[in-house]
Amino acid sequence: SWRARCQERARQVKVEADIADEEDAAEAAAQAIAKAKIASRERIEAEDRARKRKLREKDPDRPKKPTGGGFGVFLNKHRKGFQAECAGQSVAAVSKLASSRWKALSEKEKKPYMEQFQKLTLAYHAAMRKFNPPEKIAKIRQEIEARRLQARGLIEDSDEEEEEEEEEVSEEEEEVDEAAASGDEAEEEEEEDDLE
């Protein structure tokens, strides 16, 4: 009858709606988990950046990295003169004056400053290769790198690794036992054949 068909169709629509709601809920849960993983990874990386920044600040023996390119060298060389010209003005005024003077230089005039910056950069990299951070700092850096790799899923917890190794060893032992058992059966069959 018509009424029965309508009721059956209403039941089908309700079942389809329930299934769609479950799929939406599952998808939303998966998205929430993905967002949580990303947020966790970002939080860990932010903490690590902050720790690295503190490490750099705490180590007075660490070589200083040259900054600013050729302009930085130019500014360091002429800073006192610019400050004298801008006496009583803000630091921004000194920077603006230095910037305008730098832009007014030709490429030929900028070249010695650029070369000096390259020399300073090479010297910095050489000093960093020779630089041995204190043991505490090196240990913290290793911890930071391990946490980063773990957050990205590139390495697993050491407990999980140990469990996997134990499972592999036990599987190998089982295979050896099975091979030995099958070898014993083959020997028994050979002995029976010899007796006959």
UniProtKB/TrEMBL annotation:
Gene3D superfamilies reported in the protein's UniProt record: High mobility group box domain (1.10.30.10)
Keywords: DNA-binding, Nucleus
Cell location: Nucleus
Highest taxon in the source lineage: Eukaryota
DNA-binding region of this protein: 63-132
Compositionally biased tracts (Basic and acidic residues): 39-64
Composition-biased stretches (Acidic residues): 156-196
Ranges for domain HMG box: 63-132
PANTHER family per the UniProt record, alphabetical: DNA-BINDING PROTEIN MNB1B (PTHR46261:SF18), HIGH MOBILITY GROUP B PROTEIN 4-RELATED (PTHR46261)
A Pfam family reported for this protein in Swiss-Prot or TrEMBL: HMG_box
InterPro entries associated with the record: HMG_box_dom, HMG_box_dom_sf, HMGB_plant
One GO CC term, this protein: nucleus
The protein's name: HMG box domain-containing protein
GO molecular function, one term: DNA binding
Regions crossing the membrane: none
Stretch list, region Disordered: 38-74, 151-196
